[in-house]
Amino acid sequence: MNFIVLTIFPKMFNPFWEHGIIRKAIEQEKISVSAIDIRDFATGKHRSTDDRPYGGGCGMVMKPEPLAAAIRAATQEAPFAKRILLTPQGRRFDQRVANELAALNGLILICGRYEGVDERICQDFIDDEMSIGDYILTGGELAAMIMMDALTRLIPGVLGDKDSAEKETFSDSILKHGQYTRPSSFEGHDVPEVLLSGNHKDIDQWRLETSLIRTFLKRPDLLENRALSQEEIKILKKWCIDIEKIIHNQSILGPGALPGGQ
Ligand code: 4GX
């Protein structure tokens, strides 16, 4: 995957590209990255990239000429890359979109600042608009990094075998089970016994069950749009029976019969 970012702050990307899995992916040539400074394409004494909005109002707008020239230069470098503008108005970037975009061979990510970019750029120089979430950033740079980060880990060979199983979990729309490492007892809290048992069937069952419980409690929206496996249905049914037992006992004994009842 070839990533080209267009920005007035190209140095913001250096620390991102210099660390961890992203750095390794670059070294192993799974991805190539470059930042184009939009200001390099600005003309005039002050090389300004922004100007006041027609019609008045607060803030500044990114001028169309430097942006258009920068996008043309990037397109020449990567003719088949999809050109994406980062903006709160865009289609929401999520794991599904990430899987879709990870199959492409190039992305040109256009990072706006100020109040936005001249509307005529959006019309003629952009293939898609993307938002990373419903909040307002000071610029598209962090959004571009988030997209590159999520996409890079999906590229075959970037993660080891151990990690790549993990990537299935979110595209499967279920949260990860809890993880523990040594020591087995930490400040009075012990690691669940089943994880020390060495019984992999029990461990897998425990992990699936805790994943489901977590998802049900923290992100029920994820479960609603999901095709459940037979195993998962079995687990959910078991909870239903357990919960019904609690309700049944309460109604027989009366609400005052149990400690904490009202
Ligand atoms: N997900 N921002 C872009 C300036 C801007 C506005 C309109 C183009 C059109 C954001 C987000 C985000 C703030 C980046 C405004 N550029 N980007 N910037 N949320 O909030 O992606």
Structure description:
- The protein has ten helices and nine strands.
- A hairpin with a 2-residue loop joins strand 8 and strand 9.
- Bound molecules: ligand 4GX.
- The site of ligand 4GX has 17 residues, from strand 5.
Strand order of the largest sheet: 2-1-6-5-7
User: Unreliable stretches, pLDDT < 50, 5 or more residues?
Assistant: none
- Derived from helix and strand composition plus strand pairing, the structural class reads alpha/beta
Q: Summarize the biggest pleated sheet.
A: 5 strands, parallel
Residues in helix, %: 40-55%
Give me the strand/helix succession. EHHEEEHEHEHEHHEEHHH
Number of strands: 9
What does the oligomeric state look like here?
A: single chain
Shape assignment: elongated
> What does the average pLDDT come to?
93
Q: What small molecules does the structure contain?
A: ligand 4GX
C-alpha-based Rg, rounded:
25 Å
